[in-house]
Amino acid sequence: MTGRRRPTSPRPFPGVISAAAAGALLLSGCGALPGATGGSREPVTVMTWAPDRSEDINAVKMAGVPAMAQTYARWVNDTGGIDGRELRVIVCDEGDTTIGAERCAREAVDRKVAAVVGSYSSHGQSFMPALEAGGVPYIGGYGASTEEFSSYLSYPVNGGQSALLAGHGRQLGGSCTRVSLVRPDSIGGDGMPPLLNNGLMAADRPASTDILAPLDATSYDEQAAQALERSGGGCVTAVLGARTETFFDSFRRLEPEGQQVRISSVLGSVSQPLINRTGGRNSPFEGAYVTGWYPDAKNARWQQMRDVIGKYAFGDNRIDPDDTAVQTTWIAYTALRAAVRAIDDENVTSGRIVAALNGGVEVDTGGLTPTLRWRFRDLVGTSSYPRIVNTKVTFQVVREGRLTAQKKGFVDVADALTDAPRS
């Protein structure tokens, strides 16, 4: 196991802007805000970053994340701001690189933003030290890096891929007698089987069969054949990020005619946009079990977000309301709004945002998550992910080309998020 890179949490697979360009993208206005009662108060300036443009064809691209942040600001400012405060959003393209992530973080500190909100980056080892040095909180990141669940200045709104894997084991345990797990051959991938197995064993199922796969392959015939052979007619799950689609292409080609093996994955490796792109109801994911963080995209609880996108981002094809990254950005800005409202008449600074969140501000997301709060007593507190407060997941299944709820409501996987595998 030598020669491997330092782990970043496996991507739960699902602005480069100069300081001057970022300033041009800063959403601002003049005079009193529409809908504000009385004079406007001091504005709140935050940053959102994500990989947007890159010459690397393998780089992750999440243009919908900064676009959703800007849309949220337009909506808030058009309706009186946050208690009369204008919301200003600077976006930064981190380019899916360590250098880009650190550059965005340093820019956030230099511009004295109140927080970095609803962002996406897998390079937490690069951006988090810069934010910690500047005292800038990181609110509602997508969960693509381990540092988001360990840094004292991170306030995650979901349980990251760890919760998804633990929950997925629980989901598969309900109907799969045996499970083959296809996962990356990496240090990050090495942490996947214990979490999945915790969930399986909670349902009195045996541990999964562990099948390692390279993340740079163009075909997974060998791994697909192993998964078929070892599944024993049970279930095959793949968590390979953007390569999950490639694996299931190989798998469906090798699957014997008439033999139906249940396939599965977690959100980030499988998403509604991916299902749409690969044929909808005719996609290879039809019938797949999928574990997510939030209610399925057609749930009525997302209607306010959809209405805001329809009015303030009409025609902006960067924003897909079915995209989990876009949804996470919406929830993150909901958390920011609650924290700002708790500050009352004082100017909003990064230190006051941190004090408000640590002091027990409750965030009501309208049922998209449980009520969020980051007091010490609310933290899961395990050594691997001490900052997790939301241990709930959802069970979904692909029916007629749509991710739909397999089980109503949330499932709590706190007991499976342990530091050691169950025996």
Automatic annotation (TrEMBL):
Q: Which InterPro entries match?
A: Leu-bd (IPR028081), Peripla_BP_I (IPR028082)
Per UniProt, the keywords (alphabetical) are: Signal
Q: Which Gene3D superfamilies match?
A: 3.40.50.2300
Task: Identify the residues that the record assigns to the Leucine-binding protein domain, covering every copy.
Answer: 68-367
- Signal peptide residues are 1-32
* PROSITE patterns in UniProt: PROKAR_LIPOPROTEIN
Which family does the entry's similarity section mention? Belongs to the leucine-binding protein family.
- The identity of this protein, by name, is ABC transporter substrate-binding protein
Instruction: State the species of origin.
Output: Streptomyces pakalii
